[in-house]
Amino acid sequence: MMKFKLSVSSVLAVSLLLIVSCSKQSTNTNPGTNPDPATPVPGPADTITSGANNNMRLGNPTMAKPESAMNENYLINQVYYIESYSRNRGIPNWVSWHFQSEDKGTVGRQDDFRPFTGLPSGWYQVAGNSYSYATNGFDRGHNCPSGDRTSSYVANSSTFYMTNMIPQSPNLNQGPWSELEDQLRDNFVGTSNEAYIIMGSYGQGGLGRGKTDTAKTIDNGRVTVPKKVWKVAVILPKADGDDLMRITANTTILAVNMPNAENLYGTSDAERKAWRNYLTTVAEIEADAKLHGVELNLLSNVPEAVRTALKAKKYQ
């Protein structure tokens, strides 16, 4: 069961991490596809959602830290999202990001799946071709979606680090999970709202395409196939000021928790809407994760009374 203790130095490290990401305009030099003049130019602003809109504004649910000793709960600031990464599982525990219409542009999918070379020395780097539905029966499923970062080539390319991926059943990834991403982006947020979103996974054992038995790991045991995949989104109208102070018990919150199993889903228009069958509460996600050895404290930065109300709230 994951339990963590904070030291003063750790708090300072995390604080520094968030301060560093507080510029609205990008000076990021992460690798990405260099735009050809004939291709679409980047969208509105090369926005790094930071400062008042920083990617971890609602909290650090496992108190992850950017220290190599925290190999099962290693905090990585990828600028366009923040994640807790597990060395032994080879996948993120969770990924957190802020989304608003300014993050949408005209840039297409870069599809440059690749290892993240910024991991501590000696850690295995999952390669872009380490798994796929053609070889293992699982998609490289985004946590922070490509579609949420289309304002620039660099922003979109950042979502293709393999530290942002999990082995996800193709029918789930391409069906209801994709539909949920579209609904959040286009309908829940649109142009007038903004959202704080966090996605994670836990457990071991998923069913891939063309398989009859669940797989616990792939890539020669170096990448865990999660059993459950969850997402929580807090949605509120755009406004100036500290968003934490604008979140109330009446704020819209959406939570889903879905088994990572190919046989449960489909990709027809009707089947894509099946994410609604898996609506749940944050409290229920936390309780189920705990049964699988993972302690989560979601929305930890939200004032306690509001946090308690939101955790018990199921989207209707």
TrEMBL record:
SMART domains: Endonuclease_NS (SM00892), NUC (SM00477). GO terms for molecular function: endonuclease activity; hydrolase activity; metal ion binding; nucleic acid binding. Residues 78-305 form the ENPP1-3/EXOG-like endonuclease/phosphodiesterase domain. PROSITE patterns: PROKAR_LIPOPROTEIN. Residues 77-305 form the DNA/RNA non-specific endonuclease/pyrophosphatase/phosphodiesterase domain. Residues 1-26 form the signal peptide. InterPro entries: DNA/RNA_non-sp_Endonuclease_sf, Endo_G_ENPP1-like_dom, ENPP1-3/EXOG-like_nuc-like, His-Me_finger_sf, Non-specific_endonuclease. Residues 25-55 are annotated as: Disordered. Keywords: Endonuclease, Hydrolase, Metal-binding, Nuclease, Signal. Mg(2+) binds at N173. The keyword Hydrolase applies. It comes from the Bacteria. It holds the Pfam family Endonuclease_NS. This is DNA/RNA non-specific endonuclease. It comes from Filimonas effusa.
